[in-house]
Write a structure and sequence with these properties.
By secondary structure, the chain is mainly beta. The chain is globular and about 30 Å long.
Amino acid sequence: MKNVQIEKDSVTIISTGTTIEGKLVSNGNVRIDGVINGNVEAKGNITVGEHGEINGEVKGSTVTLGGKVFGSVNASDKVLLEAKSILKGDLITKILVVEEGALFDGTSKMNSNTLKSDTGSNSDLLKK
């Protein structure tokens, strides 16, 4: 059997009209325009299109949400909630961008490594 190397820049696409029951794991990037009932984990970026929906946990580098996620989101770099997106669940990320019109129902936690300790203002607030 031949070993197949998956490129980091490869993209897995789940098209509109496709439903997956179970966990999706990718070494590259993922774009979801269909429905996934299960967790999604990618070493690259995860994009949920306007008609995409995930019912489960989402873990990736950068998560761009244009559709719906019902579950937690954990992005090592950034989360972008686009204008028509819906996120019902908690999120953890370094950078959070929320466009006007996005619906977010949950709690957010910013990675403490992103706060500047040399300015004093943010670090003083955290100590109190």
